[in-house]
Amino acid sequence: MNLQGIVAVSGKPGLWRALAQNKTGYVLESLDAQKTKLIVNLSTAKLAALSEITIFGVDDDIKLIDVFEEMKSAASIPDTKADGKKLRTFFFEVAPDHDEEKVYASDMKKVISWYQLLKDLPLFNEPDPTQAPVAEAEAAPVAEAPVAEEKAAEPIVAEAPKAKAKKVATKKA
Q1: Are the CB atoms for 30 and 36 separated by under 8 Å?
Q2: Whole-angstrom distance, CA of residue 110 vs CA of residue 104
Q3: What long-range pairs does 74-83 form, CB within 8 A, spacing at least 24?
Q4: Under 8 Å CB-to-CB from 40, ≥6 apart: which residues?
């Protein structure tokens, strides 16, 4: 799941994709159908990257990405307007180690609404780019190693950049 560049902005509903960065903040685009653009000043707004968000757990904190992965395989996802008991039982299915006292119904509703926004996007099914190289390195067959060494043994010839000639002013006598 590739959630790089997806953020939640305090005081703004929904999720946003970071498009660009300027001196004072970020240019964001909403993930909903309107594709609203927003310029966020870092001195006045708080941004939270979804890839970094965790949920309070009994022993250790639970990554939001892990909860989303469990939600993919869940049989049915309750509506965000469901009562607290339904949300709590669902959350025990997808995050059994979450702390009941610290995770409120509003937090569960927010996670479910974020999941509803993200589940149809192509980035939701993409592999995480930070973990992909590790998985590829472990899955690489041994037979491919000599081929890579042969390619590395070939010399690489690069041209040196040409120096520009300086114009020198000469005095005529």
Answers
A1: yes
A2: 10
A3: 77/112, 77/115, 77/116, 78/112, 79/112, 80/109, 80/112, 80/113, 80/116
A4: 9, 25, 26, 27, 28, 47
Q: State the Cα–Cα distance between residues 23 and 6, nearest whole angstrom.
A: 20
The series of mean pLDDT values per 10 residues for the chain, 173 residues long, is 85 89 88 85 88 91 91 86 89 91 92 89 69 47 44 45 50 55
Question: Which residue segments constitute the domains of the chain, with CATH numbers given?
Answer: 1-52 (2.30.30.730), 54-127 (no CATH)
Query: Rounded CA gap, 91 and 78, in Å?
Result: 10
Return the percent helix, strand and coil in the chain, to nearest 5: 35, 15, 50
Sign of the Cα torsion 48, 50, 52, 55 reads: positive
pLDDT for the residue numbered 169: 54
Q: Which helix (H) or strand (E) holds 84?
A: helix 84-94
Per-residue pLDDT, 130: 64
Give the pairing type, strands 54-55 and 62-63: antiparallel
**Mutual orientation of helices 84-94 and 64-72 as an angle, nearest 10°?**
100
Strand partners, 25: 41
CA 167 to chain centroid, in Å, comes to: 52
